[in-house]
TrEMBL record:
InterPro entries: GH, Glyco_hydro_17, Glyco_hydro_17_plant, X8
Provenance organism: Triticum turgidum subsp. durum
TM stretches of this protein: 310-328
Annotated ranges, domain X8: 212-295
SUPFAM superfamilies, per the entry: (Trans)glycosidases (SSF51445)
GO biological process, any: carbohydrate metabolic process
Highest taxon, organism lineage: Eukaryota
Pfam families referenced in this protein's UniProt entry, alphabetically: Glyco_hydro_17, X8
Protein name, as recorded: X8 domain-containing protein
GO terms, molecular function: hydrolase activity, hydrolyzing O-glycosyl compounds
SMART domains recorded: X8 (SM00768)
Keywords from the named record: Disulfide bond, Glycosidase, Hydrolase, Membrane, Signal, Transmembrane, Transmembrane helix
Family, per entry: Belongs to the glycosyl hydrolase 17 family.
Amino acid sequence: MVAIPNKMLDMMTDYDTAREWVHKNVSAYNFGGGVNIRYVAVGNEPFLSSLNGTFLNVTLPALQNIQKALDEAGVGDTVKATVPLNADVYQSPKDNPVPSAGRFRPEISGLMTEIVQFLNQSGAPFTVNIYPGLFRKLASNAGTPLRPNQYIEIYLFSLIDEDVKSVDPGYFERHWGVMRYDGQPKYAMDPTGQGRNTALVGARGVEYLPRVWCVLNANAGNMSRLADNVGYACSNADCTSLSLGSTCNGMDPAGNASYAFNAYFQVQDQDEQACGFDGLAVRTRQDPSTGTCNFTIQLETTSAAAGRPTVLLTTALLALVLAAMVTML
């Protein structure tokens, strides 16, 4: 499954743009020995209540254009366009809170009916993100109450953490991966559904940049610009692990500053100039990681020469990080 971000849905309402996207992201990999693409996710939970209807008018046209482009490219029989939806698109009665008793939310009922009809016509699945004890359910081969003998097709979201994903729904959005950013397992899980406490096999042959970190310079005399520099670092790198309840929450202010500085330093592929911060930071070969908080080392990739995308931090998280700096000023 390859995906089109919500922010691109408006672009896909133009058919030429949709056709070009399919050419670059599907057709280019559709060859013997290439990628086995089966679905295109047109957006991700675009009707989530918290998005306040932002994508109501563009999702269906984008879905229709992508499927048309897939058909025109000659892959429409094997690659289907669908829309992964949050379970909040439907509501169940309080006295019978099961999905089969639910109905689409009133304000999107007509639109959802059109989407379901289109999916039925194109032979694409209705896709919904739900959170059961999933592997045990699949292992039982029981299907659903309505269709007890039919195979349930599922996908795991997601394989690895995504440090540039939008955090509008919450800071957790960048941490859905069953693997860390480098393809190493986060926790034990058993895809067979047999209840075994099994560690997944991590990615092999992963190459990292040198074991160098950027941390707060304890000998820096003037800390007056610390908050500004931490803010800059977290506006251009991922500091979500510092948020309340996350793995790096609970460190002292020095630890928070070091995490922010290192996040930026690694995003910049360990560029020496990226560990300055007005003299407040210093490079070190001593791993600053704690028992629960991992100070990452960037992967060795071709992006080192091409530069990396900018990550913008939400105001709320930035305020949280900066608040922790106050005691150092």
